[in-house]
């Protein structure tokens, strides 16, 4: 039975699908998710993206409510695939010029790496033979088949064995059989339907739930599913994959920051199992592609009015853009980018202030290694400084141990989305493998957790069970506790400018502890602890100034503003001002 046609405001005539290929019609981000919306945006800018269609978030909601694919979706999936076939002159499951697709999650709110992606879908024995005949490269075709079988076995069938390092498809199939999860179906349509359901289900996984809870994202958000024609970065020496940030996500400097992996697929880079090369290697091997990428990146940065995280694949010397989204960044980068966008005339100061939150500034003001203190410390390992900061704690080896000991140092060979609950609890993350754009690096920057990646084999054995200090600003890990000291916000020009702009947006004055202030004054630190408990002290009518640790917290700032207080005294002014801006809406 065919689903009834319902014309939506964004122009699609399908009930469960959107085809984001009309530059004049912007799709609803809530309906198609951020990933598909970015494909539409890049296509509307004239940039090259592989064709795709989208299963909407409404379909995910219907699946969640009914426990199965909603009526009519299977038929619409076939319609979507036929559109791709006509565009590319290929056949899904065909014995000549076969079409393979990726099946990618995409919530309306960016959640990097939290939900599942399945590449090379549509492969079977006949398709492998067809790929081998078309490319003249049986080894490439065999590798595509092996990768797909491992993806499907892990993400759809639920195999718990490590499938990534197995030699060939036969070995993966044997592992699936040993694990008792069943076989990968040969029918590509069955593969597609099951993969869509698996991506829907990943929106309710433990890692996705933990991420949403940490960031206050609604738990019923669900996900859209983007079905996109495959491009192959592992096809030949003129192929590869990479990630590019238009501005450095560690310190915010406006310079390209990224990595490139020749003869690789995107999963290789973000998984951290392989350490990619610097982006300069693409400039050396394929200068025209690199120049095209830089031009596209600059345009996406300008059009997006923010730093962009761009995923790309090169197939036989042709550049394809797969995604562009606002980049996850450290607190330092958030501040630098906001200020620099004002200097570039992209943002007004008031909007720049709203791009930075109080917690990011508090993170930026965390202690740093005291100059000279590390000189006598024992260096245990070093790697890439993927997310700056300093943390001291017991080194543990599993995310569960990190949850049990909040603030510990999580040490892994590489991290995956299944480690996120431990990464949220950890004080720092250290990995043996991976580069500056791997999963551990990207998620740690989003969490503002100190992270050092790519420390090399033997790191786990060297650190586990020992108290260590991670200096992720320099990429070094020391034995024991190394002395640190606080940062002074008045010595930072970016923070000073944000402070001045924030002051213009709120009625309250925030001043340092040594300043003269009008009375009456309420000092929360002077109230006996047994009288307070965990509550804020009541603010008497007529109080003009509040001070003390409780009045620098978000609840304390809001209470002071609601009571009409004129002055808040705080050792660090900017976090209080930013909280006030968020509470008052910056309407002054």
Automatic annotation (TrEMBL):
Keyword Transferase included in the entry's annotation: yes
Entry keyword set: Pyruvate, Transferase
InterPro entries hit by this protein: ATP_grasp_subdomain_1 (IPR013815), PEP-util_enz_mobile_dom (IPR008279), PEP_util_AS (IPR018274), Phosphohistidine_dom_sf (IPR036637), PPDK_AMP/ATP-bd (IPR002192), Pyruvate_phosphate_dikinase (IPR010121)
Gene Ontology molecular-function annotations: pyruvate, phosphate dikinase activity
Gene3D superfamilies registered for this protein in UniProt: 1.20.80.30, ATP-grasp fold, A domain, ATP-grasp fold, B domain, Phosphohistidine domain, Pyruvate Phosphate Dikinase, domain 2
Pyruvate phosphate dikinase AMP/ATP-binding domain span: 73-276
Domain spans labelled PEP-utilising enzyme mobile: 406-475
EC number: 2.7.9.1
Xref: Pfam families: PEP-utilizers, PPDK_N
Transferase found in the keyword field: yes
Protein name (database record): Pyruvate, phosphate dikinase
Source taxonomy: Bacteria, Bacillati, Actinomycetota, Actinomycetes, Geodermatophilales
């Amino acid at each position: 039975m065919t689903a009834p046609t319902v014309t939506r405001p964004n122009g699609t005539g399908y009930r469960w699908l959107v085809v984001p290929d009309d530059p004049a019609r912007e799709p609803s981000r809530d309906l198609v998710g951020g990933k598909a919306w970015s494909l539409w945006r890049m296509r509307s800018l004239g940039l090259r993206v592989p064709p795709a269609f989208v299963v909407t978030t409404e379909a995910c909601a219907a699946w969640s409510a009914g426990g199965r694919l909603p009526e009519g979706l299977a038929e619409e999936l076939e319609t979507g695939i036929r559109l791709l076939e006509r565009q590319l002159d290929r056949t899904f499951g065909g014995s000549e010029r076969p079409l393979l697709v990726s099946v990618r999650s995409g919530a309306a709110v960016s959640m990097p790496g939290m939900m599942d992606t399945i590449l090379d879908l549509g492969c079977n024995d006949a398709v492998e033979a067809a790929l081998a005949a078309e490319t003249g490269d049986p080894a490439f075709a065999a590798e595509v088949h092996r990768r797909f079988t491992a993806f499907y076995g892990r993400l759809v069938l639920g195999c718990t064995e490590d499938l990534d390092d197995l030699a060939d498809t036969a070995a993966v199939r044997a592992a699936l059989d040993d694990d008792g999860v069943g076989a990968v179906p040969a029918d590509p349509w069955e593969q597609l339907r099951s993969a869509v359901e698996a991506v829907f289900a990943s929106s309710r996984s433990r890692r996705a739930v933990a991420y949403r809870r940490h960031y206050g994202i609604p738990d019923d958000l669900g996900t859209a599913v983007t079905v996109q024609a495959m491009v192959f970065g592992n096809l030949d020496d003129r192929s590869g994959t990479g990630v590019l940030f238009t501005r450095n996500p560690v310190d915010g400097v406006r310079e390209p920051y990224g990595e490139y992996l020749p003869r690789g697929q995107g999963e290789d880079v973000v998984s951290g199992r392989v350490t990619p090369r610097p982006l300069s290697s693409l400039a050396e091997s394929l200068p025209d592609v690199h120049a095209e990428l830089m031009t596209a990146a600059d345009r996406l940065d300008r059009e997006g009015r923010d730093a962009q995280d761009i995923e790309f694949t090169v197939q036989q010397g042709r550049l394809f853009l797969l995604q562009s989204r606002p980049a996850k960044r450290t607190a330092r980068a958030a501040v630098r980018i906001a200020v620099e966008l004002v200097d570039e005339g992209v943002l007004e100061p008031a909007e720049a202030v709203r791009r930075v939150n109080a917690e990011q500034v508090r993170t930026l003001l965390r202690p740093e290694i005291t100059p000279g203190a590390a000189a006598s410390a024992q260096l245990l390992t070093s790697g890439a400084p993927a997310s700056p900061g300093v943390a001291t704690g017991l080194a543990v080896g599993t995310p569960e141990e990190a949850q049990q000991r909040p603030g510990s140092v999580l040490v892994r060979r590489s991290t995956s989305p299944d480690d996120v609950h431990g990464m949220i609890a950890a004080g720092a993350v250290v990995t043996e493998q991976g580069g500056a754009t791997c999963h551990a690096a990207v998620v740690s920057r989003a969490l503002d957790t100190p992270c050092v990646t790519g420390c090399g084999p033997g790191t786990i054995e060297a650190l586990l069970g020992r108290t260590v200090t991670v200096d992720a600003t320099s990429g070094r890990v020391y034995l024991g506790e190394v002395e640190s000291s606080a940062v002074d916000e008045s010595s930072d020009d970016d923070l000073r400018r944000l402070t001045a702009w924030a002051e213009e947006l709120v009625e309250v004055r925030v001043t340092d502890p040594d300043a003269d202030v009008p009375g009456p004054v309420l000092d929360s630190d002077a109230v006996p602890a047994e009288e307070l408990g965990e509550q804020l002290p009541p603010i008497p009518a007529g109080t003009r100034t509040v001070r003390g640790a409780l009045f620098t917290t978000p609840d304390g700032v809001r209470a002071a503003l609601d009571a009409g207080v004129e002055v808040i005294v705080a050792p660090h002014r900017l976090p209080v001002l930013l909280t006030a801006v968020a509470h008052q809406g910056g309407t002054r």
